[in-house]
């Protein structure tokens, strides 16, 4: 290579490098947004995670902080947009990808969670604020003339998941137990069967119109029944297969749950859902 050619090659590489670096950095910036759901209830997005918050004349009720950076961003946005103190932080369950960062709100907020969530947050040293207030079955939080009704749905996706109903906004916030036209996440770690199905029934008894999940788009009440259909088909399919002596591999190819073929992640996660339920049933079944 001549000197000129070498210089030219180096310059080209440098320019290519710059183009490569810039989009890579932009991709790393978290996608954050605040959108109105109904009335004074808003949805907060941090990449693939969502929570909600309610603005009242006496302050703001926030839910899952998601992580410390996301919570810091949300806290500043709430201050700029509404200029009201954050009075309550309600955690949907203990899992860190939703509960982390609670300490960001703890200077002004009372932290609420299910009693089992507190035990896990403390026991597993979750990176969040330790709940100040806990409950076992139901609890209503009132602030500035508005309410949020908390219901423990039983051991389902974790042993401490609660759902949050905002009656004036006709919206239910439900994390990780339900999604809109998408199968459940991978091998359903930390979950309980058939408790998960009972929990969905409990949620169907709540009076609401808009479903706000912890991942993916908003939905409607009918999505709960659709998820119950999928989970029931999955659970009974695996249980019946096991009773007939079917192997995990054969269940993965035969339990196709065709009705749900059009759902998101059907191809990748349905076999993992089967594996998760299979392993749980295997552990619980009595030897002959
Ligand atoms: Zn979870």
* Name of the CATH architecture: 4-Layer Sandwich
Strands, count: 13
The whole-number mean of residue pLDDT values reads: 93
**N- to C-terminal distance:** 78 Å
Look up the CATH topology.
Answer: Metallo-beta-lactamase, Chain A
Instruction: Give the strand order, joined by hyphens, for the main sheet.
Output: 1-2-3-4-5-6-7
Question: How would you sum up this structure in a few lines?
Answer:
The protein is an alpha/beta fold and 288 residues long. It has helices at 3-28, 68-82, 96-99, 115-123, 195-204, 222-243, 248-254, 266-284; strands spanning 32-38, 41-46, 49-56, 59-62, 86-90, 110-114, 133-135, 138-143, 146-152, 162-166, 171-174, 210-213, 219-220. It has one domain (30-284): Metallo-beta-lactamase, Chain A.
Task: Write a structural description.
The protein is built from 8 helices and 13 strands. It starts with a helix and ends with a helix. A 7-stranded mixed beta sheet has the order 1-2-3-4-5-6-7. A 6-stranded mixed beta sheet has the order 8-9-10-11-12-13, with helices on one face. The protein has about 290 residues and is an alpha/beta fold. A hairpin with a 2-residue loop joins strand 3 (about 50-55) and strand 4. It has one domain (about 30-285): 4-Layer Sandwich (Metallo-beta-lactamase, Chain A), CATH 3.60.15. Bound molecules: zinc ion. Zinc ion (ZN) binds near residues 157, 158 and 176.
């Amino acid at each position: 290579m001549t000197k000129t050619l070498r210089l030219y090659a180096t310059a080209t590489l440098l320019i290519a490098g710059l183009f490569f670096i810039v989009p890579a950095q932009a991709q790393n910036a978290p996608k954050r947004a605040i959108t109105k759901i109904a009335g004074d209830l808003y949805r907060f997005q941090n990449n693939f995670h969502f929570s909600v918050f309610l603005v009242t004349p006496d302050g703001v009720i926030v839910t899952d902080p998601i992580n410390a950076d996301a919570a810091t961003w949300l806290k500043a946005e709430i201050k700029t947009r509404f200029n009201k103190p954050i009075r309550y932080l309600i955690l949907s369950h203990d899992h860190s990808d939703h509960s982390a960062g609670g300490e960001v709100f703890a200077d002004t907020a009372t932290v609420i969670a299910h009693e089992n969530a507190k035990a896990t947050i403390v026991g597993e040293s979750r990176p969040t604020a330790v709940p100040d207030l806990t409950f076992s079955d139901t609890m209503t939080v009132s602030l500035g003339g508005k309410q949020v009704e908390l219901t423990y749905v039983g051991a389902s996706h974790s042993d401490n998941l609660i759902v949050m109903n905002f009656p004036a906004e006709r919206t239910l916030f439900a994390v990780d137990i339900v999604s809109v036209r998408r199968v459940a996440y991978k091998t359903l770690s930390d979950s309980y069967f058939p408790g998960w199905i009972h929990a969905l029934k409990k949620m169907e008894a709540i009076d609401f119109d808009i479903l706000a999940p912890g991942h993916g788009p908003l939905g409607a009440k009918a999505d709960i029944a659709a998820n119950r259909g999928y989970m029931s088909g999955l659970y009974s399919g695996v249980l019946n297969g096991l009773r007939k002596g079917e192997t995990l591999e054969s269940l993965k190819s035969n339990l196709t749950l065709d009705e749900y073929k059009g759902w998101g992640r059907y191809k990748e996660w349905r076999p993992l859902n089967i594996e998760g339920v299979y392993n749980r049933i295997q552990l619980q079944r009595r030897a002959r």
